[in-house]
Amino acid sequence: MDRQKQAIATMEALVLAQEKAAARIWGTIERVRERGTVTATTTMATSFENLKPGVKAAEKKKAGLDGDKDYTADADCLRCHTTGYGKPGGFTSIAETPDMANVQCEECHGAGGDFRTVMKNKNFKLAEATAAGLKLPNEKNNNCMDCHGSDSPFNEKVDPKYKFDIKDRLTKTHEHFPLKYEH
Q1: What count of other Cβ atoms lies within 10 Å of the Cβ of residue 54?
Q2: What is the CATH number of the domain that holds 131?
Q3: What is d(CA 106, CA 97) in angstroms, rounded to the nearest whole number?
Q4: Residue 134, exposed/middle/buried by CB under 10 A (0-12, 13-18, 19+)?
Q5: Of 75, 97, 165, 166, which has the fewest CB atoms closer than 10 Å, so is most exposed?
């Protein structure tokens, strides 16, 4: 039994080492083991919390929403406050897929199965990763507006602070996570 425990501990250590390496390669997230989930350091990483009753109630009221309502099962909200909602392998409910709550890297950068394989090599070329499915939002290819567009109840008509500026957002989201390697 001790050999089995040692083998499991070794495998867990290897998985943790791979996760840490992936975080360094990505340069955009800080992986933290917390209840088996990955926690990033952006506001998107806690966006599901905003759907809970009483959370950001004043902002919800200003946008014409009920601040005391539970929006954690509302399809209109889940598409922008979770990862992969309505897609294979994506969020279905907090009970069934809690690890897909909040907006994680894959929601903006694409499902990572293929490009993560490329990125395991710390000297990967960005062209290889994008060819394998990595999406890089920028001013021209801006999938951010899928959630930050005018159909969101939180737009600049409600409050100027909700005006979405892609340059500013990319800077705020990613500048404090510099890439460690040239790509």
Answers
A1: 10
A2: 1.10.1130.10
A3: 15
A4: buried
A5: 75
What pLDDT, on a 0 to 100 scale, did the predictor assign at position 180?
Answer: 64
How many domains does the chain contain in total? Answer: 1
Inside any domain, residue 72: yes
pLDDT digits (tens, 9 = 90+) for 72-87: 999 999 999 999 999 8
Other CB atoms within a 10 A radius of the CB of residue 40 amount to 21
Question: Other CB atoms closer than 10 Å to residue 80's CB: what's the count?
Answer: 19
Q: Which helix (H) or strand (E) holds 34?
A: strand 33-34
Question: What pLDDT is recorded for position 54?
Answer: 96
Q: What is the pLDDT of residues 2-36, one digit of tens each?
A: 888 887 877 777 666 555 545 444 443 333 333 33
Largest CA distance in the chain: 63
- For residue 130, the one-letter residue type is T
* Residues 131, 142: Cα–Cα separation, whole Å: 18
Position 94, amino acid: I
Q: How confident is the model at residue 1 (pLDDT cuts 50, 70, 90)?
A: low
